Amino acid sequence: MNLNLALAKFKKRKEKIMAPLTTLKQGKTSTISKIGEGITGAERRRLLDLGIYPGATISHRFNAAPGEPIAYEVLGSIIALRKEQTENIFMVEE
User: Fold this and answer.
1) Which H or E run includes 10?
2) Does residue 9 lie in a domain region?
3) pLDDT at residue 1 in the model
4) Is there a domain that residue 65 lies in?
5) Could you say which of 9, 20, 23, 51 would form a disulfide bridge with 74 (CB–CB 3.0 to 4.6 Å)?
6) 11-15, long-range: CB within 8 Å, 24+ apart, which pairs?
7) Which pTM value belongs to this model?
């Protein structure tokens, strides 16, 4: 099989299984695949510093009483993210 064709098929398959972090169910774990263009500047740097980068494992731990923010575990730390942020962080569904 042509290498370019194989890569194109892989990329197409990968795009199909990416979903925003908002869809991760409580108690489930996934792998971050992309930080969207909606997160820029200091906010993007903050997320990267917290360990939210492509390839990192993230787990949905619990929701706050009003439903937001949501607590996630990344690199052994619990962090809270708002819906606007999680809509721009994409994961690979497992």
Assistant:
1) helix 3-17
2) no
3) 47
4) yes
5) 51
6) 14/92
7) 0.78
| DSSP three-state, residue 52 | coil
- Residue 32, in any domain of the structure: yes
The pLDDT, as a whole number, for residue 52 is 94
Instruction: Dump pLDDT digits (tens) for 16-59.
Output: 578 999 999 999 999 999 999 999 999 999 999 999 999 999 99
Mean pLDDT of the chain: 86
Q: Is residue 69 part of a domain?
A: yes
Number of domains in the chain: 1
Looking at residue 8, its pLDDT comes to 62
> Amino acid identity of 14?
K
Nearest-5° Cα angle at 11, 76 to 34? 30
Write out the residue range of the structural domain in which residue 22 sits: 18-92
